[in-house]
Amino acid sequence: MKTVRVHGYGGVEVLKYEEVEKPEPGEGQVRVRLEAVGVNFIDIYHRMGRYQGTLPLTLGQEGGGVVDAIGANVAEVKPGDRVVYAGVQGSYAEYAIVPVSSLVPVPQGVDLKIATAVTLQGITAHYLALSTYPLKKGETALIHAAGGGTGGLLVQIAKLRGAHVIGTVSTEEKAILAREAGADTVINYAQTDFEAEVKKLTNGKGVDVVYDSVGKDTFEKSLNCLRKRGYMVLFGQSSGSVSPIDPQILNAKGSLFLTRPTLGHYISDRAELTGRTNDLFQWIADGRLRVLVDKTFPLENVAEAHRYLEDRKSKGKILLIP
């Protein structure tokens, strides 16, 4: 089968489209013939070596397709079933071996590409808004990168929770997407000081929570946007890693809370995983959650897909098609 691996860390030049032996599922495992593969910033971090694993490393943590073969003691799915998964390394390929505990059946009426597109980013948005800081009706959230894939889903879910949403974006094109997702106010932080604007919008009180996937460029000002005992949820670092901070800063700025969540800790068992995806699929079927697939690339054009995401050109989900 064809796959994309890295044999050393670096830029897009380390991405190797190559042929390897098709793997066989072991006990409790399933082989999935992939029809769509999600591209996410964590793939870029793995390529660059920010999160190092054993080399050579097959990139990708999200995929959707059809069950091709099952290993021993697998009863939850059967060959021919449509499934998606997230958080399992090795999806930049024509086939993937996935623990059955990580697979989610895709219900009839939900397109497989849409289901793939929503899995990792949708679960992330779900746990952020319902678990990391459970938004309540009437609260105000500041969501950075509100015109991107995860950000746009998070805006929509925050609105489903009854929250008031202030979104930030880097371009006017993404401002349109953030408004379409339901953001009440959109700030282009390339043109406007978002800290000053948020303080003005909240009459100096600050927001209840900041959801920040940008990191280095936004972190310090984000802390200044919070109310007393507000929550800083740092879940990404698209602009670079945040510098170490003295915890005393959290005290000085209002006894703030700071957390750095990661996906795996919020889908710790199959019940939690399916609970989140069932919500997402139901919202899609009901028309309450819109999933935007921005661009698709053939698997062999993975370098182009990475450049597109790194340049912050994405206006929704990016998929690779094996």
Number of helices: 9
CATH-defined architecture of the largest domain: 3-Layer(aba) Sandwich
Q: What is the third-level CATH name, the topology of the largest domain?
A: Rossmann fold
Cα Rg: 20 Å
Oligomer: single chain
Unreliable parts = none
List the domain count as a whole number. 2
Helix percent band: 25-40%
The profile of the biggest β sheet is: 7 strands, mixed
Q: In whole angstroms, how far apart are the ends?
A: 10 Å
Mean pLDDT: 95
* Structural class by secondary-structure content: alpha/beta
Overall, the morphology is globular
* H/E topology pattern: EEEHEEEEEHEHEHEHEHEHEHEHE
Strand content: 25-35%
Briefly characterize the structure.
By secondary structure, the protein is of the alpha/beta class. The chain has nine helices and 16 strands.
